[in-house]
């Protein structure tokens, strides 16, 4: 979920919090990378995190790629407190090797 960065190869892009929530509800999401600051009038990453917890729509793995330290802390605390044990939550952005692996798997 990001309002301006390009979508890495092999991933599906949600440009708004609402799009992200629909994808989590309607699709099988393996890896989610959340931004916090989504622009005026849009749901923030913290609001999306709270709705993920409330709806129980967790992916298998979550990364937090925001540059906002407040946003990262807020999203992490919300998700950590409500996540099931099988969900892997990372405090920071997705490593390059994960992006390359997903892109490679998408080519198959």
Automatic annotation (TrEMBL):
Residue stretches making up the Cyclic-phosphate processing Receiver domain: 1-80
InterPro entries in alphabetical order: cREC_REC
GO biological process, one term: cell division
Keywords: Cell cycle, Cell division
Name listed for the protein in its UniProt record: Cell division protein FtsJ
Organism (species): Saccharibacillus alkalitolerans
Lineage: Bacteria, Bacillati, Bacillota, Bacilli, Bacillales
């Amino acid at each position: 979920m990001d309002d301006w960065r390009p979508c890495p190869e092999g991933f599906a892009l949600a440009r708004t919090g609402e799009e992200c929530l629909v994808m989590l509800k309607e699709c099988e999401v393996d890896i989610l990378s959340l931004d916090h600051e989504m622009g005026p009038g849009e749901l923030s990453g913290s609001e999306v995190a709270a709705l993920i917890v409330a709806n129980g729509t967790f992916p298998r793995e979550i990364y937090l790629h925001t540059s906002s330290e407040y946003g990262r802390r807020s999203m992490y605390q919300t998700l950590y407190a409500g996540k099931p044990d099988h969900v892997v939550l990372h405090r920071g952005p997705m490593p390059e090797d994960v992006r390359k692996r997903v892109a490679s798997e998408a080519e198959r």
